Amino acid sequence: MDQGVAVWLVLAAALVAANLPYFSERLLIVGPRRAPKAVGWRLLELALMAVLTFGLGSALEARIGQRQEQGWEFYAAATCLFITLGFPGFVWRYLRRGRG
User: Fold this and answer.
1) pLDDT tens digits, residue range 74-83?
2) What is the pLDDT of residue 100?
3) Cα angle vertex 84, ends 40, 28, to 5°?
4) Is the pLDDT of residue 99 over 60?
5) Is position 22 within any domain?
6) Is 28 among the domain residues?
7) What interhelical angle do 72-85 and 39-64 show, nearest 10?
8) What is the pLDDT of residues 36-49, one digit of tens each?
9) φ and ψ at 84, to 5 degrees?
10) Contact (Cβ atoms closer than 8 angstroms) between residue 36 and residue 24
11) Which letter does DSSP use for residue 94 in this model?
């Protein structure tokens, strides 16, 4: 797999994963349906999706070549990017106005 393709794959996966907690009413995406899912569940799902996305990126990096060690700065910036990618779902869930 080409390095550019791997980068775009991780970014696309992060975009989808960051918005899933806001568009799904199921617990952890596959669990039972909860009509109004609490904010705490959404934050837990967001953190879990971030960890899974970081794992995907790490696995693709190891597959392409030697995996580089990252400091806390990398994970802080990646977490901020992940939260930013989830902004459309947040707006759709909490900030949009209903008609009428």
Assistant:
1) 999 999 999 9
2) 45
3) 35
4) no
5) yes
6) yes
7) 120
8) 888 888 999 999 99
9) -65, -40
10) no
11) I
Query: Number of folded domains in the chain?
Result: 1
pTM for the model stands at 0.86
User: 4-13 long-range contacts, Cβ below 8 Å, gap at least 24?
Assistant: 6/60, 6/61, 6/63, 6/64, 9/60, 10/53, 10/56, 10/57, 10/60, 13/53, 13/56
Is residue 17 in some structural domain? yes
Contact 18, 86 (CB under 8 A): yes
Residue 100 lies in a domain: no
Q: Are 18 and 82 in contact (CB under 8 A)?
A: yes
Contacts of 94 (CB under 8 A, 6+ apart): none
Torsion angle of the four alpha carbons 31, 93, 82, 44, in this order, in degrees rounded to the nearest 10: -40
Between CA 78 and CA 74 the distance in angstroms is 6
The residue range of the domain holding 34 is 3-95
